[in-house]
Design goal:
By secondary structure, the protein is mostly helical. It has a single domain, classed as Orthogonal Bundle (Fic-like fold), CATH 1.10.3290.10. It has seven helices and two strands; from the N terminus they run H-H-E-E-H-H-H-H-H. The protein has a two-stranded antiparallel sheet with strand order 1-2. Strand 1 and strand 2 form a beta hairpin. The longest helix has 22 residues. The radius of gyration is 16 Å and the shape is globular. The two termini are 26 Å apart.
């Protein structure tokens, strides 16, 4: 799903909106397929290597770097342009570092949501999911990075979620609703697993 941005504003090949990539792919379908393969392989590596280090904003940026390092020179780097999608305006590029750091500091202050009742855990993780969705710190790959991160976060707290088993249309609707202040749908994604 495309962001509301013009090609001349951010690292796209001349004449189209395909992001400049290490593979030199100038066709969006080919790039999408390459991303799918690379990100799937890197996700498995990350999950197998999970070592319990604190979930900080630096860790989150490192996830993106690892997931997309085979495709983009800017993997793991905060975006320099403002983005919006489907009527949702994400955090301004100029505020990403501070906002991201504060969100992850709160996660640490809450002990990565350990020790909460299941209903509190569902509520807190759903709210944090919305917070990270609205942050949208990278030019591309935010959803995939976010889902992998929440898989790690939820598992570390002793629960489980398999986004592969989620209804992705429902998840998208739930995140759009949450971005507009309606948090009724997003917690249901967690409760279904």
């Amino acid at each position: 799903m495309a962001y509301s941005i013009t090609a001349s504003e951010d690292s796209c090949y001349p004449g189209n909106t395909v992001l400049v990539n290490k593979l030199g792919l100038k066709n969006q379908e080919a790039l999408d397929q390459a991303e799918k393969v690379a990100v799937t392989l890197r996700s498995v590596e990350i999950e197998q290597a999970e070592n319990g280090q604190p979930f900080t904003f630096g860790f989150y940026c490192g996830l993106h770097r690892t997931l997309f390092q085979d495709l983009y020179d800017w993997a793991g780097t905060l975006r320099a342009v403002d983005l919006s999608k489907k009527g949702t305006h994400f955090t301004a590029a100029a505020s990403l570092e501070r906002s991201g750091t504060l969100k992850f500091q709160r996660l640490q202050e809450m002990n990565e949501f350990h020790g909460l009742s299941q209903s509190e855990f569902v509520r807190e993780t759903a709210e944090f999911y919305n917070d990270l969705n609205l942050l949208h710190p990278f030019r591309e790959g935010n959803g995939r990075t976010q889902r992998l991160f929440f898989t790690l976060l939820i598992r570390r707290a002793g629960y489980d979620i398999r986004f592969a088993d989620c209804d992705m249309d429902y998840l998208m609707i739930a995140t759009i609703q949450a971005a507009h202040g309606v948090m009724d749908y997003l917690p249901a994604v967690w409760r279904r697993h």
